[in-house]
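Researcher: Here's the sequence for the chain we discussed earlier.
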Amino acid sequence: MSCANKSVRYHWAGAIRLSLVAALLLASVPAGASEFIVNSTDDAVDATPGDGHCETLVGNHICTLRAAVMEANKASGFGATITLPAGTYKLILPATLADGEDGGDLNLTVPQVPSSLTVITINGAGAATTIIDAQQNDRVFNVAVGRTARISGVSIINGLTVTALGGGGIYNAGDLTVNDCILSGNIAAAADGGGILNEGAFSATRVTFSVNTATNGHGGGIASHGDSVTLTNSVLSGNLAAGDGGGIFMGSGSLTLNHSSLGDNIASSGRGGGIFTNGSTTISYSTVSDNTAGDYGGGIDEDPSGTLEINTSTISGNSATFRGGGIANFGQLILRNSTLSQNHSKESGAGVWNWNEPSASASVYNSTIVFNQADSDANGSGVGGGAYIGVDSVFSIRNTVIAGNTRSSPVIADDCSGFLVIYGNNRLSTAAGCTAATGDPGSTAALIGSLSELGVLANNGGPSKTIALIPPSTMNRRRRHQSGMRRSEQRGNGHRSTRLPSLRRALRYWCIRVQPRVHFGNGFE
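Model: Thanks. This is the structure I predict for it:
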């Protein structure tokens, strides 16, 4: 049955026979949802929105993407599924002041009977072959408050907004899930969110955000003032913001980042080259690398009201014009089983910069902070190559390596500046600039024998790059936790530990536990 013969079908599982390709595209159509199959790459409106027939003139059976969206907006019950075959869909109808469905961006409007079950689903044939190109005429999608939408298998490109409502590629005020897509070349010229501005709930899996720009705002790739952003197996690269958050800007709400990477993003005059967060942020099994900030936080900047938890991840090669090459922490930071390496700041705190206020606390365990460089412009203005710890802040470490960090004026070994609270077995390459107190009996912070014991940042297995120990090593002694359990490592439990030191986790090969399993007896875990 050709698409021209009938562009609208009401699909119940097994009710219609389709070709193999069409069946694959329609595999995710929910039972009871209206179904619209696009058969034209033109940009034309629906003849009679709400009549259940996607066609640009009555009886012509030509179904465009815009016409399908207009029909889907009127669908009730379980909503509608739009099947979008391979092709380039150019949005050429001009935007209007009314911002209606008949021009500019594709508006996914509020359901006629508001319900989270009334979902609009758009299924493309794959991001490489199904392209929605806004031609810088407007943004691509506008998802209204109360609308639940699912978009997969498309590229969303060349969106442009010039008004105070940002979101160059997508503006979302509803509940939006995007899978297996590309958002690229989108621009928010006067507001936040080059790729997307989220003011609702946004989830993305296997999505690439690349070369998006917030020309005069925050969040080159993603900006959020909404409830939540969740990214899984996704990539943000080459995005640019004039303000904060070259890759991601979180003005509020929660950010969850799993198995994802942020690289080569820039906050040209702001903070957080990779991520700026003012909410609750959890990063796991991910990499934040080679990002640049014109102010604080080359990799990540966390504001005073924020919480930042980093697990089994690598923060590397980031640069800050001011402070905090890897992380600038103004709030509450927890760093577990992670690596900070090769980050640079022109002033203090190349690995981690911890604010001079009691509200700034950093709790670090089983981690590696090595080969970071403060005062990278060598003008004598920065200290704390590994960590800068503000006078009134708290910085606690357990079973962690801080070594090989420097400041340049000339090059001086400089692992930390400020006051450390020590738990467990730790290693430094120099104690100059640090004062310390033990948090529980038997805790130590000894000096390593030589920096030659540390390898380079490399793929040693696991989700991100790490630093291995080079034998022979003064840290190459295997110890057991008193409970008999082994410390986990950044590579994951699938990697057997070798006979390495109390730094096991920190350097990826670690299996020591010299204290009972009470991580930071003062309440830090």
